[in-house]
Amino acid sequence: MTLAMTLALTAAAPDLGTLETPLLVIALPSAPTLSGELQPADQAANGALARALARRDFRGGRDEVLFLAGGERGIQRLLLVGTGNASDRAGGLRRAAALAARQAGRLGVGQLAFFAGSLAANEVEAAGVGLVAGAWDFREMKSAAPADEQRAPLESAVVLAADAGARDAGIRGAQAIGAGHSLARRLGMLPGNVCTPDYLADTARDIAKRLGMSVTTLDRAAMQREKMGSFLAVAQGTTQDPKLIMLEYRRGPKDGKPVVLVGKGLCFDSGGISIKPAQGMEWMKFDMCGAAGVLGAMEAIGRLELPVNVVGLIGSTTNMPSGEAMKPGDVVQASNGKFIEIINTDAEGRLVLADVLSFAKRLSPEAVIDAATLTGACVIALGHTATGVMGTDDRLVQDVLDAGKRAGEPGWPLPLWDDYKDLIKSDVADIKNSGGRPAGTITAALFLKEFAEGYPWVHLDIAGTAYTESDLGTVPRGPTGVPVGTFVEFVRGRAR
Which stretch of 214-218, 402-406, 466-470, 492-496 has the lowest confidence by average pLDDT? Predict the structure, then answer.
């Protein structure tokens, strides 16, 4: 199993006068000035830093960058990165650090130092998480470039901060969360013929072995015994064995109720009989990003050694057309006894989650949060900026929104009013799995609500935020790591 993170991330006291680095990154806000602590960096650049600021060649706008040459030794290069007028300084530093790490990868410098003045622990952590995100690069399935075209990947980075306590706490958090993000992104990037339900189960076992957790898996036969007809309806079109994966982390009170994190793990979604258009179907390998987010979060939580009880649940299969596949008009029965009419076989994630959410009830959870690339309607509603957030408990919804904000993974609440339930009423069953195009994100969540009974529950629709089909500057095309940060921040909030 390939480990999740390759960037060696450390922290040190800032002494720019004696610093030896091929690249010094300086994060600056809008309208920056040359402070006394930046004088050594200016000297390394033969006064170019002071001139750039005085001439306003660099104004500190968000995502603004300026490269300056340094000396043969000491500080060899400088990269100025703007954070703009961000009210959230930690978020601005996270973004600036990600941009800087990507620039360092293009330069081939191999290592860098990151300086942003005085930093609190959460700001050290944010900078470190950004550096890991920017340094991440999926190369394991690419042949090596010709020797004269190769550039050294970014392998190490040091965050410069004066406060020793902030350095230690911040860098430890960054290493853990960075590892979780990197694991989730790697799983997302792997093709569907490699990242199968078995592979996700093996990944859970690897996490459990390394970080002192326990893991249980249910295969097709076990799910049949549990009468998970909704989940199995999706899996009946594939020869691959479906998996319900339970990863348990028990570091809280012995009798403490766990937080349960649930992830949709469709390792490939063709749409089934209601098949998707061929163009762009390859992106449907990312339909397991909810599951990847759960595994990444459990990786981070285990490394942080948080004093809480957390259980990760993953429902994983593939949605394929075949002679045995479910078809529109079929009626299946979920493990909680409810009958479901299949209107659209491409609305399969909610069928898998129905039985997983019902399974969660037996854990007597304090709270359940699920994440799923569930609806294209969420992308239409919120684009690729915010995650759709819905739930049965207003306070829990707000806690999740706050966690996402701290993690740099913003969410936006949508209503779960009963007025929308008529859209998923069935003529032949208790409920149907699709209400059509109107309010598609809400009706999908209302469907899940029918199975999230007996506990406070929040649903995250990450269809627009878990991966990107265009380069965002801070991350390339592909998986973003969402919702690892939201999950970790929520659990940390419960641990405080």
Answer: 492-496
CB 99 within 8 A of CB 65: yes
Look at residue 2 and tell me if it is in a domain: no
Residue 192 lies in domain: 185-495
| Interatomic CA distance for residues 33 and 42, integer angstroms | 12
Q: Which two tokens stand for residue 199?
A: 């592979």
Find the radius of gyration of the CA atoms of the chain: 24
The answer to whether residue 26 scores a pLDDT higher than 70 is yes
C-alpha 3/C-alpha 209 separation (Å) is: 13
* Tokens at 457, concatenated: 């529950």
Instruction: Based on the fold, state whether residues 340 and 266 are members of the same structural domain.
Output: yes
Name the token pair of 241.
């064995």
Whether 255 and 327 map to the same domain: the answer is yes
pTM for this model (two decimals): 0.97
Count of beta carbons in the 10 Å neighbourhood of residue 417: 10
| Residue 175 forms part of a structural domain | no
d(CA 369, CA 380): 23
Q: Are 211 and 310 in a shared domain?
A: yes
Per-residue confidence (pLDDT) for residue 193, from 0 to 100 = 98
Residue 388 belongs to a domain: yes
What six digits make up the tokens of 443? 């009706």
Instruction: Please check whether residues 209 and 152 belong to one and the same domain.
Output: no
Same domain, 386 and 486: yes
- 428 CB-near residues (< 8 Å, 6+ apart): 331, 341
pLDDT band with cut points at 50, 70 and 90 for residue 149: confident
CA distance 335 to 359: 8
Q: Are residues 318 and 455 in the same domain?
A: yes
| b/e burial code for range 244-283 (CB count within 10 A of at least 16 → b) | bbbbbbebbeeeeebbbbbbbbbbbbbbbbbeeeeeeeee
92 shares its domain with 214:
no
Task: Encode pLDDT of 339-361 as tens digits.
Answer: 999 999 999 999 999 999 999 99
Closest CA to 119 of 65, 75, 159: 159
In the set 303, 350, 432, 492, the catalytic residue is 350
Catalytic: 59? no
- Residue 2's pLDDT is 47
Q: What pLDDT score was predicted for residue 226?
A: 98
Residue of 250, 276, 361, 405 with catalytic role: 276
DSSP 204-236: HHHHHHHHT-EEEEE-HHHHHHTT-HHHHHHHT
* Number of domains present in the structure of the chain: 2
| Separation CA 404–CA 493 (nearest Å) | 11
| Nearest by Cα to 36 from 21, 19, 49 | 49
Q: Return the closest-CA partner of residue 186 out of 273, 60, 291, 95.
A: 291
Is 350 annotated in the active site? yes
